[in-house]
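Proteins fold reproducibly. Look at a concrete instance:
___
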Amino acid sequence: MSTRWPCCRSLAHDRTMKSRVHPKYRTRCRVGNWWEYERALVLRGDVTLWLSPDAIDAWRPAPSGRPGGQQQFSDLAIETALSLRLVFRLPLRQTEGILRLALALMCADLEAPDDTTLSRRSQGLSVGIHRVPANGPIHLIVDSTGLSVVGEDEWAAAKYGGRGQRGWKKLHLGVDQLGTIVAYALTDSTVDDATTGVGLIQAVDDDIARVTADAAYDTIAFYDAAGARGATVVVPPDRTARVSRRRPRSRARDRTVTAVKVIGRRRWKKASGYYRQARVENAIFRYKSIIGDRLRARRLRAQETESVIACSILNRMTELSRPASFATGS
C-alpha cells in the first residue's frame, strides 16, 4: 500500500519557511508532576541511593578456588565506587575518601578500595547497562556525540607550552521513546556512524517498531538492519540522494527519497514524526551535563567501562521519575 502524503504548496515556498517560531506563538509547557520530579532530583544526590544493600551484601567476592592471591573487592563493589565517582565528578582518591565515609556512616564493617585498585580493576571490569523493562515494542532513536580525552600531547602542551593534539572518542547512544538508553557503543572518532548504528540495532533485545536517526545513518545497510528486525525507518535522505537504479537497493529508502522530493524535507519530517529525534539529543545533553563532556579514564578498556556505568547512572536517574509535561497554550 502506497503512503499518501499531505498536499502542500510549492517546494520553493517550503525551502524558504523559517525554522524559528516567534516567542509570541511558541507553545508553553508545564510539568504536571513537579513535586514527585523534584523529590527524584533530590534523591540523585543521595549517597545511599548508589550504595545499595545488594552492593553491601556482595562487597567481598566469593573465593575463586584457584591458588594464589584472592580479590578483596567484588565487581559490584568496584562498580559502585566508580558510579560514585561519576555522579559526584570526583578523582579516584576523593572517591576512596567519600566511599570510606559513607561506609562508616552506614556502620558497615567494610573497607573502601583504594585509587590504585579502582584504576586497575576498571580496565577488566565486566558490567552491563541498567535495563528498564519496556512495555511492548520500542521506538529506537540513534545518534552520536564526541567525548574529549586528555592525552599526553595536550598535557605536554600545557606544561611546556605550544599546541597539543586533543583526542576524542565517539559515544553512540540508542534510546527508546521514553529517553531510556537501550544501546551504546564507544568508538574512535573516525568510525562511521551508520556502521555503528547497525550494531546498535542488533544489540537491542526488545522488539523494535521504529528506528529514527539523522542523515548520517542514510545507508542501505542501516535500512537492511532495521528491516531485519521488522522496524520502520525514519531517516532523512542526503541532499543529493537519488532513487536506486541498481543493486543493492532498499525499497524503504527509495520511498523516503521520493516522498521528500514530492512534499519537501520540512513537511516530510513533520509527517513522519522525525522530530522525535530530540529524545536522543536530550539524552546526550543529560550525559554531558550530569556526567561531563570528557572521559576521565586514559586506557581504552577503562573508558569503555566508564561509558557503560555512565549510561546505567542516567537510566537509574530516569527510572526514579520523569517530568510529565503538558502544553498550556501559546
Remarks:
- Residues 94 and 155 are 22 Å apart (CA to CA).
- The two ends are 38 Å apart (CA to CA).
